[in-house]
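Quick one, tokens below. Sequence please?
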């Protein structure tokens, strides 16, 4: 594109049932839930949450039931697809009127016997370890010559879990000698507003995760690399599509790239193409959307709230 290479980490192809970056988060969270003796794991997110549908689809393989606590978001084809799949799964859904009700719903659900509740996106040090592992995987791919060491890794920031995890994993890779040379800038593109995606919030989660990693054997001299928080693609806010993200989505998909969504990955792609036009590379897009298209629920199973929203 424009005579220069772009690199894409296709996280969306990570599983034939449902892929995306949330698979990394759930690898650790599902094991944690089992170790705690939980019977049901609850995800929190918007109606079309990638994290919620990933949890509901993958929890049974870990021997767990799943449920979803959902709050409203603007309608979009990708959000409706995920919400329809949540309904079709038959999982228990706690539908809220506003995001401000989330703490109260989480507290009530968490009191149920055998329940464990993840925060939105699974964004705790437990959840970040999945993305940290992905960063080590990337370091191995660079060493193997699969791609050049990127100058920037561009990704969408929603719950901050993946961004913080990449910061930690890259730092561990460098401290352990796996990553040679300067670390790439982790360039997070806001899809949720401040203060959820404030730089301080992301770094605080990364530092807590790093402290836990060091406690469990990571090199003590590990230091985080550079973080950039880019708010240029947020538009009117979470779930609101923009002209720039739609153009980027069409361009990437037309060039043979992965499936993208206008809520998350296409906004990251819009920022990536702006960086690419100015010659700022090598660039790596962390493509987080599952490449699996989920089937719609049966018509007779669609609740009124879903049909009215979509």
């Amino acid at each position: 594109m424009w005579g220069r290479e772009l690199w894409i980490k296709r996280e969306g192809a990570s599983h034939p049932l449902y892929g995306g970056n949330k698979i990394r988060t759930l690898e650790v969270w599902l094991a944690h839930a089992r170790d705690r003796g939980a019977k049901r794991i609850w995800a929190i997110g918007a109606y079309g949450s990638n994290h919620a549908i990933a949890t509901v689809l993958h929890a049974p393989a870990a021997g767990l039931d799943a449920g979803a606590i959902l709050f409203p978001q603007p309608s979009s084809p990708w959000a409706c697809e995920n919400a329809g799949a949540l309904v079709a799964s038959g999982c228990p859904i706690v539908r809220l009127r506003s995001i401000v009700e989330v703490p109260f719903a989480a507290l009530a659900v968490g009191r149920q016997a055998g329940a464990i509740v993840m925060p939105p996106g699974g964004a705790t040090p437990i959840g970040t370890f999945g993305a940290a592992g992905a960063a080590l995987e990337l370091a191995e791919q660079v060493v193997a010559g699969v791609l050049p060491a990127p100058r920037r890794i561009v990704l969408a920031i929603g719950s901050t879990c993946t961004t913080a995890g990449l910061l930690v994993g890259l730092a561990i890779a460098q401290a352990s000698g796996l990553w040679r040379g300067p670390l790439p800038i982790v360039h997070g593109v806001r899809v949720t507003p401040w203060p959820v995606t404030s730089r301080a919030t992301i770094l605080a989660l990364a530092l807590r995760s790093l402290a836990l990693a060091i406690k469990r054997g990571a090199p003590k001299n590990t230091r985080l690399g550079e973080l950039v928080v880019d708010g240029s693609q947020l538009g009117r806010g979470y779930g609101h599509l923009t002209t720039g993200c739609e153009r980027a989505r069409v361009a990437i998909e037309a060039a043979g790239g992965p499936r993208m969504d206008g809520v998350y990955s296409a906004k990251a792609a819009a920022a990536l193409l702006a960086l690419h036009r100015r010659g700022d590379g090598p660039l790596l897009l962390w493509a987080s959307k599952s490449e699996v298209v989920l089937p719609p629920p049966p018509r007779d199973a669609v609740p009124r709230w879903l049909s009215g929203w979509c």
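The domain at 22-119 is CATH 3.40.50.1100 (Rossmann fold). The chain has a mean pLDDT of 96.
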